[in-house]
Amino acid sequence: MELHPLRVAEVAPVTDDSVAITFDVPDELRDAYDFAHGQHLVLVREAGGEELRRTYSICAPAGSGTLRVAVKRLEGGAFSSWAHSDLRAGDVLDVMTPGGRFTTALDPAHRRRYAAIAAGSGITPILSIAATILEREPDSEVALAYGNRTSGSIMFLEELEDLKDRHPQRFQLFHVLSREPQPAELLSGRLDRERLARFFDTLLLPDEVDEWFLCGPLELIEGARALLRERGVPGERIHREVFHADRPAPAARAAAARAAAAGDGRAQTEGAATVTAVLGGRASTLSVPRAGETILDALLAVRSDAPYACKGGVCGTCRCRVVAGETRMDLSYALEEAEIDSGFVLACQAHPVSDTVTVDFDQ
């Protein structure tokens, strides 16, 4: 993935606390910014001498020619607050080319049923996924359970209703509101584990769904995934993307390291290891402490081109593969079980265990 300066074409309100940002993409960069449904962008800006990187999902159908993200204002959020108050059409932002694996291969011949569960700004990749599926697979269906506080806080309400109007037989939309009464009791309240279980008993029967897409806060996503697994849904049919997971403090990282050492006699947390990172076809060798600093932190000191965004184990931008040696991770929200089994780690969460480690960012 590469960074390019892109001009902002439009900043449009979506709700009282969210805006949609559309970018102009010059013709020579069209191929670079071609995206799959469910992918994201990393936006970069300087603020007070500090580089801020934030990951935002693309909320436009794949192949539409529109490159758009939505930013929800977070309390104390340096980037999101600035985007709401100061960002204007005509401004230029550094934008990383699209990335992410929260997607699936589509085929016009498919006749499938997809189901999505989202809350709040978790709708952004789901909107892209649903619209693209409905366009590219004319015989497939999509069902969406979308949780919010009130009808006024529903992001892209009109676009969702338009999808429903254009595909009345193929798109089911269930708004679940926690602070506004709904005609049906099932749709009134938080989209928590108990309510999800009722959905899975009635409106979203797991046996009838081919693939699942889950996007929102960690508690919702992990709860939904656990329920689906309990009901026999294979992990490879559940796609998930976590929004707003807190990054553990250094003390928590140290505690995790001590716990790893206590639970595994091979794990070492003292001293440093020699780590070789392959990136862009070039290998860099560095010394990385076994506790505290992550492989990404150490790599950034010598390779400014190391890919990263959230540093919280959520976006997956820093995904790499361990091809030699052994590592451990603090968190792994952005990786599926199959990826971990294949040796992939998140550099922002990874620490060396063995004396020597080689990680490859090019795989």
Automatic annotation (TrEMBL):
Cofactors, names only: FAD
Domain 2Fe-2S ferredoxin-type: 273-363
Pfam family, one: FAD_binding_6
One of the GO biological process terms: phenylacetate catabolic process
SUPFAM superfamilies in UniProt: 2Fe-2S ferredoxin-like (SSF54292), Ferredoxin reductase-like, C-terminal NADP-linked domain (SSF52343), Riboflavin synthase domain-like (SSF63380)
Annotated ranges, domain FAD-binding FR-type: 1-105
CDD domains: fer2 (cd00207), PA_degradation_oxidoreductase_like (cd06214)
Xref: Gene3D superfamilies: 3.10.20.30, Nucleotide-binding domain of ferredoxin-NADP reductase (FNR) module, Translation factors
Molecular function in Gene Ontology: 2 iron, 2 sulfur cluster binding; oxidoreductase activity
Protein keywords: 2Fe-2S, FAD, Flavoprotein, Iron, Iron-sulfur, Metal-binding, Oxidoreductase
Superkingdom of the source species: Bacteria
UniProt xrefs under InterPro entries: 2Fe-2S_ferredoxin-like_sf, 2Fe-2S_ferredoxin-type, 2Fe2S_fd_BS, Beta-grasp_dom_sf, Cbr1-like_FAD-bd_dom, FAD-bd_FR_type, FNR_nucleotide-bd, MRET
Name of this protein: Phenylacetate-CoA oxygenase/reductase, PaaK subunit
